[in-house]
Structures are given as structure tokens and as C-alpha cells.
Amino acid sequence: MKPAANSANLTAAYTNAVNNITIKGFSVIKRFFSLEFTFSKRLLGVILVVVGVLGCLGLIAFDIIRQSDQGIGPAQRAGMLMLGAAALIGLTLIPLGKAEA
Amino acid sequence: MQRVLKLFHRVLIAVALIVMVFHLAVYVAYAANLIPFPFDYDQGEGFELYDTQLFSEFQTPYRDLEPYPYYASNYPPVFHLIAVPFAWLFGPQYWYGRLLGVLGTLITAYAIGYAVWKDGQHRTGRGNLIIGILAGLAFLASNITYRQGPLLRQQMSMVMFETLAVVILTQAENFFRVTWRKQRLFLLGFGMLILAGYTKQLAAYSAIAVLIWLFLRNPRRAIAWGTLFAAVGAFIFALLYVSSNGQWWKQAIAANVNTIFWPQVEGLFRLWYGLHGFLIIPAALLCLYELYFERLSLYVIWFGVTLTLGGISSGTWGGGDSYFATSVAGLSLLSGIFFSRWLAGDFKFPPNYLTRILGILKPLTPLVTASALLIVPLLYIGYGRAVLKMPTTGVLFEPLANWWGLEPNALNGFYDSAGRIAGGYSDIGHFVTAQDYANAERIADYVRNSEKPVLSEEAGFSFRAGRDVVSNPTQLLNVWLRGQYDGTTLINQIDRQEFGYIILRAQFYPTPVLLAISRAYETVDVIPMNGFEYIIKAPKTGQWGGDDYYLK
User: Which of B10, B39, B109, B258 fits as disulfide partner to B460, beta carbons 3.0 to 4.6 Å?
Assistant: First the structure.
């Protein structure tokens, strides 16, 4: 194969891939905002895990950045407890699959 | 065997109803005792009345606190606006505001009972009326509802609007298809939510719960309804902001942001559980059931959000046990639904990994269902004992108190199972006495006989004497704690002894104001009322240093 043709094929393949992803992305967004979409237990579980883990990490990072001598305060402790519980509940929801949340 | 069990069930349900009706009778007696009392019973009631009076005269209560009369309100207007027609008819009176509070609790109880009955009707075609009635009465029996209900305060009106909102929205969601009737119910539900929010700011938590629920059901509808809701809310907000020259934001929003005192949160959570544990566990079981075996209902999300956020907020200055009132409505409703479904054997377990684990208990299903006949009424009876509160004196109550061995543990010979151990659980709930009336009139006489205005921590004495309401101490403190109150004008006026008397109860004024009071005024009388001591201060004589002495 000539180098020019090879490059054209690669460009076409790349464009196709991008288009596919874009179309898929759009279709996911379109579906999300359709009148039929509803959250599944799995999706709710994933969201709870992500929020719980990122929230806990955020609180720990905040404590490190703040460099306070007092350590983790009651508000942070309560926050971490709630976020941790949310993550745990989320984990137990994921196996419930497509059941409506 | 089944027959005997059903007979026991009927007897126990009758006992549970008697217990709950007894609580209702105590509530009615308390309300009847308190409603005619023409003074503040809970600190701040008079200021709510003053807000109503200002609205009835087409004035805004969101004002600058710096000039005389140093007054501003920190609450939204709906409750006061509802009372305005009464103010036009009867003038500034406490009774109609308190009556509105009681009516709010009765409507909430009815909505809870209806929701419980409707749940059974919707699912099985047969609602459980008795459990619906017990659930509504359980809400009224709670120490928190009892104490707050007959006060001239907006808390229970907010709970009423919140409860109506979630019940209406749940009924709307039961319509399978989008019809005009469903849309109308949604409009009505969101309307109630707006009313709740503009009754008291705490209703924001219910709005969060509703939007989470709607988003889980369908994000598109949540965004559409949320946008409409926010637009209406923002329009009213802008109206209040403009009509008060920005004071609405400063007094009702910015001044209400307070830090949390965590030991108080912990204490109040313990107390809340201690009082309502018999119903909290069934409510929590329904939450778990919906989480793993059904769709999450608005009731469950509402209970979870308002309990968490309301409970945390209860630890703020100005918070307290009343911040649990919405969650009490939620737990009464959820436990009622749990009991109704349990008695009907209406728990379905779709196949999932948890059903497989719980499968080993399947042979016990008939026993578990039958046990509801005994356990459900016993739980209501247990709850009835846990929330027991009543006077230990009086024709009817004294013999009962003696019979049950109840010792008074609160003011004016009152017994309250909550005790007085948790910070933030205020000293209310007791009945007012003839001596309280007489002593209140003695305090009002000081205002009446003064040639100069009187600075009072409560507005009731000024209303009674037909004089100016001067200052709102809690709001002065709120704004001062935010660093937004200078106070020079008030302090100068105190230093110049321009008030005939100063009446203190809890000494809520900002520290510089209290210091000025102690500089220029001295105690001339201490009068007990409702179990509290009211300090009457008059201008100091002989040692006054003149106009400029304290002003540097």
C-alpha cells in the first residue's frame, strides 16, 4: 500500500471512531434526558460509591492541606461517616442491576 | 388459633387507640391552656405577632436594625401573612397564631393518616384505616409535636406544608400516565413546597428531597419541574429583596447561618431515638425494604434527607429539638405504612442476591405475618409510654400521676419523659397557671407605667400595655455574631438611660448591649413567670456620669 493511501485510511478510521463515540455519547445523553429514563439500582449504587469515595478523599485532602493541629474535627468525622456509609450502601446496590431505583 | 390471635389483636389495637387518644387529650388540654395566654410563653412568640402586625399595616418586618426601634424579623412571611386577616379583625393577639399552629399539626396528622390508608388502597385495594388513624395520632403524641404545636411559631405550619407537599406529589406519581390531573397535582405539590419554604427556611431540606426523588425517577422531569420551582421561588425572593431594600437577604438569610454545636446534635439525636425508637425501627425497616426490593418512594427520601440535615442543623444557635419535627412526621408516616403492609402481608421480594440469602427464612413467613397482629399494636403502646408527658397536678392529671408514680421533672409540676438532659430541648410543654397570669400583668404594669419606652426581651408586655415593641434581641445577636451589627445607637440610648425599664429573661442581647445595660441600669425587681425569672431593670441613680461619660 502507498503511504498516502495508508494515511487516508487511518484518517477515515479515526473519523469513524470519533463519530461513533460522539454518536454513542449523544445517544447516552439523549437517553438520559428522555421521558422513559429512570435510575437503576446499579447506577444509583455506582453514584453512591463514587460520591462516597471521592468525598472521603476530599475531606482527607482538605485536612492535609489545612495543616490543622486539631486533626479531624467532629464535622469532618460526621461527614466521613456519612460518605463512607453511602459508599457501602452503594456497593450493595450494584449487584441489583437494572431494578428501578 | 387464628381466631384467638385476631381477638388479641383487636383488644391490643383498642388499648393502643386509648393510649393515643389519651395523648391527644393531653395535647388538647395543653393547647386550651396556652392559647388564651396573652403573653410570650416561648421566647420570640411576640415577635412573630409583631411581624403579623407589621404586615397587616402593609409594612415590611425586614428592616435595618441600627436605628430605633432596633427591630427586624429573621423569618419568611407566609405564617404571618396567613394570620393577617385575624390581625385586621382582632388586633395583635396571641390566640389566633397559636390556633393556627394547632390546626397545622391536625392537618399534618390527617395527611399522615391519609397517606398510610392510601398506600394500602393503592397497592391492595384496601387501606388500613385504623393504622392510618394510629399513625396520625402518633405524630400528635410525639413530645416534639406536642411542645411546638400550640406555639405562635411557624415551625408546625412549615411541617404541615412539607407533609402536604410530599403526600400530594406521591399521589400524583401514582398516576401511570401523564394527565392534566397528574400535572395539576404536581403543581399543587410544588406550590405547597414553596409555601413551606417561605414559612421557614428549614423547608429547603424537603425541597432537596423532592428534587432528588424526581431526579431518580426521571432527570428530564426533575429539571423541568426544578426550573419552574426555582423560577417561582426566585421571583418571590426578588420581590422580598426589593421591597425591603436588601434587608430580607441580610436579616432572613445571611443572619441565619450559624455554626454547629456538635454535642447538642448528638444529645438531640439520642433523645429523638429514645422517644421515638418504637416507630423509628419499623420506619428504618421500610427504608431498607424499598432500597433493596422496591423503588425508593418520596416518603423514604424525604425522611432520610430531613432527618440527616434537620438533625445536624438542630445543633445551631436557635436550633433545637423542633428541627426534628419534620422527621417525626416522616417516621410516623413510614412506620404506619410498614405496619399496614405487614398486617396485609404485602411485602414482595423480587429475586436478587439478598432474596437468596433471606430465602432460608421463607418457612417462617406465615409466623412473621401472623406476629404482626400482636407486635404492631404493642409497638404503638410502647411508643405511647416512651413519649408520655403530662401535668402532675389538676383534677384529672394528679390522680393519674399518683397512680403511675410520675414525679414532676419539668417546670410548673410537669412530667416529660424526655427529661431535661439534652441541650437544645427547651423548657416548654408545661401548663401556665393563674399565678403566671398575675405575674405577667405585674411585668406589663412596669411597661404601662413608664413614661419612656421600655426595652424588653419579649414583645408581649409591650403589646399588653399598648406600647412600642422595641428590639428583637435574638436577631440583634444573630447579626452581631455575623459581625454585621454596630449597635452604637442602641448602646448610646441605654447609656443615656432613655428607656424607662429594661426587661430581661434569657439575656439574649449581644454582649456590648448587655454590658451597657449593666453599666446604666440596676435590678429593681425579679418576677417569676412560666418557671422563668424576669429581671426588671431601672436606670441607676446617683452614680450616673452624664451624657458623655460612657460614650467614648
Answer: B39
Say which of A74, A93, A95 has its CB closest to residue B262. A74
Number of helices (H), then strands (E), belonging to chain B: the values are: 22, 6
B262/A96 Cβ within 8 A:
no
Give the nearest partner residue to A37 out of B218, B292, B353, using CB atoms.
Answer: B218
ipTM exceeds 0.90, yes or no: no
Tens of each residue's pLDDT in chain B, 552 residues = 788 999 999 999 999 999 999 999 999 999 999 999 999 999 899 999 999 999 999 999 999 999 999 999 999 999 999 999 999 999 999 999 999 999 999 999 999 999 999 999 999 999 999 999 999 999 999 999 999 999 999 999 999 999 999 999 999 988 767 788 889 999 999 999 999 999 999 999 999 999 999 999 999 999 999 999 999 999 999 999 999 999 999 999 988 888 899 999 999 999 999 999 999 999 999 999 999 999 999 999 999 999 999 999 999 988 899 999 999 999 999 999 999 999 999 999 999 999 999 889 889 999 999 999 999 999 999 999 999 999 999 989 999 999 999 999 999 899 999 987 777 888 899 999 999 999 999 999 999 999 999 999 999 999 999 999 999 999 999 999 888 899 999 999 999 999 999 999 989 999 999 999 999 999 999 999 998 999 999 999 865 544 444 443
List helix spans (H) across B294-430. Answer: 298-313, 325-344, 353-358, 365-386, 397-404
In chain A, what are the domain boundaries?
1-37, 38-101
Instruction: Give the span between the Cα atoms of B247 and B263, in whole angstroms.
Output: 33
